[in-house]
Amino acid sequence: MWLVLGSGGQVGQALCRDARWTGLDRAALDLTDPAAVQTQVGRLRPTVVVNAAAHTALDRAETDPAAACAVNATGAQAVAKAAAAIGACLIQISTDCVFSGEGGPFSEDDPVGPINAYGASKLAGEQAVRASGVGYVILRTSWLVGEGRSNFLGRVCRQALAGEAMAVVDDQLGTPTGVADLALAISRLAEAVDGVPSLAETLHFAGLGQATRHDLAQAIADHACDLAGRPRPMIRAIETFQGPGQARRPRDARLSSIRIARLHGIDSRPWGDMVRDATEAWWRGQAA
Fold first, then answer.
1. Cis bond upstream, residue 114 (ω within 30)
2. Residue 238: is its pLDDT beyond 80?
3. Four-way CATH pick for 2-287: 3.40.50.11740, 1.20.120.450, 3.40.50.10330, 3.40.50.720
């Protein structure tokens, strides 16, 4: 049996569409309670555990870094110890924000250096996993694009279809990644690592190519308006200092996905194809 923690989030929900995964959301398991983590993981005895649970609010992490660390670092440590105790392999989901945002695209061997509290908490989680003795894969990804209502894709689609004016930064560069593509990559990785408790790998999985935040928003809006038969909107480009938010955002968040393809045969796709499919899935969900 494979277990995903954080099954209420985008990645967890996508994974649980595959019957091989059993999910526990935040209500079912609080990662800040190590004893509960040990008990639940020990009771279920999965052979692979994916930790997709995370405190992802960048700006709130700046004002309350302890809350981010409680989930992203201490919680990851608890999961790693629980998985190690039953000989399960852990796939720990991490982020481009462990890097400085200067000099991408980043490979797995590039020096880390987070510039915000969220990135620091996720890096602490990586370090805790490595030190725990569990067999692990740390899987970093970036700029997730999925079909949820309150995420970036949902907000852009709703505003575009309502004809609302939008302004999005165009001086942050990254590798947008479809949530469905990431879930498929995780499942394929689980197949590869199941029964290999001594594994110790760090991998990246992200869309191919690169885009600015503005490029991403424009692509989403264009697809949504094409599906609805409405005129494509023009999204105003702004610089980071003009946008909202307290946390520093990496200017370059691009990840290289070469290693996961070479080691495990898990190939990525162009980010534009991922965004098109995610937007179409969002559109179908609205029509249902």
1. no
2. yes
3. 3.40.50.720
Paired tokens of 169: 């930064």
Question: Tell me: the pLDDT tens digits for 179-212?
Answer: 999 999 999 999 999 988 789 999 999 999 999 9
Q: Measure the CA–CA gap between 164 and 67, rounded to whole angstroms.
A: 34
Active site positions, annotated: 118
User: Beta strands 211-212 and 173-174: pairing type?
Assistant: antiparallel
3-state secondary structure the chain: CEEEECCCCHHHHHHCCCCCEEEECCCCCCCCCHHHHHHHHHHHCCCEEEECCCCCCHHHHHHCHHHHHHHHHHHHHHHHHHHHHCCCEEEEEEEHHHCCCCCCCECCCCCCCCCCHHHHHHHHHHHHHHHCCCEEEEEEECCEECCCCCCHHHHHHHHHHCCCCCEEECCCEECCEEHHHHHHHHHHHHHHHCCCCCCEEEEECCCECCEEHHHHHHHHHHHHHHHHCCCCCCCEEECHHHCCCCCCCCCECCECCHHHHHHHCCCCCEHHHHHHHHHHHHHHHHHC
